[in-house]
Amino acid sequence: MRPVLRATHVMCNQQELSIASAGVVVAQAKETTGMCFSTGCCARQFETYDVSGKLVYTLEVNDCTSHSGGCNCCAPTLFNERLTVDVKTADGQYLPPSTFIWPGCNCGGLTDLTNMVVAFPDNATADERSAILAGMMLIEFSVMEMRRQQQKENGGGAGGAPNSEEMKR
Q1: Is residue 80 one of the residues assigned to a domain?
Q2: HEC states along the chain?
Q3: Which domain holds residue 48?
Q4: In a domain, 98, yes or no
Q5: pLDDT digit string, tens, across residues 17-64
Q6: φ, ψ (nearest 5 deg) of residue 109
Q7: What pTM, to 2 d.p., does this model score?
Q8: Per the structure, how many domains does the chain have?
Q9: Which of 79, 101, 109, 157 lies 20 to 30 Å from 50, alpha-carbon distance?
């Protein structure tokens, strides 16, 4: 049976996303800071939970820099192709980061594709991997989609789903 994603999206409220299989939630991600109440300058934090509701990972996105030393300014774009997402275990240990990668001039200028590189811990279970994916999908939904919409409003390239006129082509 295919997993089902369910997300809620309101700008200043905390966002949530669940992954369910056969009607059972196997992973959940929640934004703990909310867009209007970030933990620091330009920082947003997301927590992921397993099937029992136990905290598994915390994912952090900062518009300026990342814990691993990556620069997130203007990312992911032509000027900085990687947006780094820091991943921490429930006990606060940093894992290798996951990233969003700009799809390049051809794809990035014509579509709203997203490229992710997700680093799973070697010993992660399927539920723990689902938790990281839930967090990355929520970041895609609440952070990356907002950036695409802002670029579109500012005259930038692609962003968001095609409207009904574009679908008639």
Answers
A1: yes
A2: CCCEEEEECCCCCCCEEEEEECCEEEEEEEECCCCCCCCCCCEEEEEEECCCCCEEEEEEEECCECCCCCECCCCCCCCCCEEEEEEEECCCCEEEEEEEECCCHHHHHHCCCCEEECCCCCCCCHHHHHHHHHHHHHHHHHHHHHHHHHHHHCCCCCCCCCCHHHHCC
A3: 4-158
A4: yes
A5: 999 888 889 999 999 875 555 445 577 899 999 989 999 999 998 877
A6: -85, -15
A7: 0.73
A8: 1
A9: 101
Edge-to-edge strand list for the sheet holding 94-101? 4-8, 16-21, 24-31, 43-49, 55-62, 82-89, 94-101, 115-117
Number of Cβ within 10 Å of residue 43's Cβ equals: 15
How many other C-beta atoms can be found within 10 angstroms of the C-beta atom of residue 133? 21
In a domain, 131, yes or no: yes
At residue 85, what are phi and psi to the nearest 5 degrees? Answer: -110, 120
Integer CA distances (angstroms), 107 to 78, 101, 112, 151, 161, in order: 11, 12, 8, 15, 15
